[in-house]
Amino acid sequence: MKRIIAPLALALTVAPLALVAMPATAQQQQGAADLARVSAHLRAITTLVADFAQTDRSGQTLTGKLTLKQPGKVRFQYQKGVPLLIVGDGRALTMIDYEVRQVQRWPIGNSPLGALLDPSKDISRYGKVIPTGDPNTISIQARDPKRPEYGTITMVFQRDAGSPAGLRLYGWVALDSQNNRTSVRLTGHRYGAPVADSAFRWTDPRQRGRPGGG
Question: pLDDT (tens digit, 9 = 90+) per residue, 100-113?
């Protein structure tokens, strides 16, 4: 179970990217425009509910539901039978493992997905555009060269006229320091639906020892 799940937790904890200044080029100008579009997309989201599929390097796939509510709330609810839950409350991300009754927390600010959870942040400070060869796809990579143990995460957006600011988050790919690759794909995006704050509550297994990810 841990070998499947750990890379997603890693994907949420990569530190901000340190960018190196380069001469202005047409490619960089396009990259700046793409970063601005991604920022506009993230700022336009009020709520998002989507299905996710997480695949590890061996090809094993877990599914679940992502629920996002701005500002700063997110929930990764895994499929039935997977005793893991990840919840963001606007300040920190919490990973709850009901199988071993452990709870881990880390600041949202240490995560490149902080852009998703805090749209007021300047994504250009910790992300760079990776050319995809597809004008309809924008890829943003985050990596801290000073902390290689955090690995690399690449978020992928697709142009979609029906989504906020004309973009849709397709998913992301995480590569840890041992070159273990995990991909997460989102489908069935639903924007703007009412989401109650209770969706971001969780049961502490250290107090009740309750099994499952409820």
Answer: 999 998 777 655 56
